[in-house]
Amino acid sequence: MALHLNLFHEEILEQRQRQRDPLKIGMIALVVCGVSLFLYYTWNAYQTLEIKSRLTTVERAWKKIEPRVTAAQKRVADLESLIKTTRALDDYIDNRFFWAPFLQNVSRCVAPNTQLTNFTGVLLDENKGINVSIEGVAAGREPRSVAEDLRQMLLEQLGQTYSEVKAEFKTLEDLDTVVNVGGTHMATAHYVLTVNFNSAPEPKPAKSPASPRARK
Amino acid sequence: MRSTKDQIKKLSLSAIGFVFLLYVYFTFFLGPLNRSRDGMLLKIKDLQSKLDSSKEEMTKAVKLEQRAKTSTSRFAALKAFNPEGAPIAWFPPRIRAFFADQQIDKAVARLEGSSGFKQAELSEWMKYSWIIDLPRADYGTLGRAIAELENTNPLLSITRLSIHTLPEQPQFQHVDLAAVNVIEKK
Lengths: 216, 186
Prior knowledge:
Structural class of chain A: alpha+beta
Distance between the termini of chain A: 135 Å
Number of helices of chain A: 4
Strand order of the largest sheet of chain B: 1-2-4-3
Strand content of chain B: 25-35%
Oligomer: heterodimer
Order of helices and strands of chain A: HHHEEHEE
Order of helices and strands of chain B: HHHEEHEE
Structural class of chain B: alpha+beta
Distance between the termini of chain B: 99 Å
Radius of gyration of chain A: 52 Å
Shape of chain A: rod-shaped
Number of strands of chain B: 4
Helix content of chain B: 55-70%
Largest interface: A-B, 65 and 66 residues
Strand content of chain A: 25-35%
Number of helices of chain B: 4
Radius of gyration of chain B: 40 Å
């Protein structure tokens, strides 16, 4: 075997060592990494700028439309409030108790031999209850039955329009006074009637369901 | 190949430098950029939703305006029932004139009090309670007058009615009315 002498072996080793210098490799890696990060940052910055321009456009559009939207929102709120108020007022108006028809009903019940001297009607709060006190004098052969007729008439007449009608005597007493009605002398009785009712009409009974079987 | 002590030292320094570089990069460059981008995206989303809803709002306003025509005119009509000014200034003369037209003279209206409504919708309206005194009326005329009063004044409601016979003139009665009138706050 021939002897081969490498006289440059030290120089070659040094060169190899220089090439494999970890510091140098590290610096190269650092530079590559830095460049990558810089490129990533640039890409992000570009995207951000694009988003910023989009934001400016949207902001400009919003600024343009905002006064109209605010006005529209205010108008909607005003209109909604107005509708609600009108509805509430209409409810209030519809739920009023009308005294004139009631007075007409009472006048229908009063016979010529009955006189009303005092009448007081009170609307009881929101529950639509009405309380009426009727005071008067009834004349007849049997004045108490005349007063009772008035009570019955009131029950009948008011029951046609209102619900939960109650008419009760608070006082019914014979008087010593004799009056002349249509040329006839009649005994008299003093009465005080208390009438209570609800202004809502009597609810109609629900229709019974039709018989499924046909009549034969 | 074994690294020398000097090389290890340099490598450690490079690693520390790299970590520092990353920290600076993420904290002072990429972080704020991303935050600002996210903020802008949120703002765009918010504005976009506002823009989208604004179209609906405006359409809604137009549609509501059309639907509310009846309510608007009704509301204006109800408001017109009560003139401007303090109710105490115009209500008693109006009542006196009204009953005079109905052949019932010397009607006197006195203010008893005022109160607000419980309902939020009627917070701008007040209930004024009045005592109306009719010293001399006959039953038929009174009935017709009350019917007219109730029909022509929808915002007025009679809460108490008291009729007493006049002892010296049994064909006439003395009447007291308690009425509530709904009036808009001024």
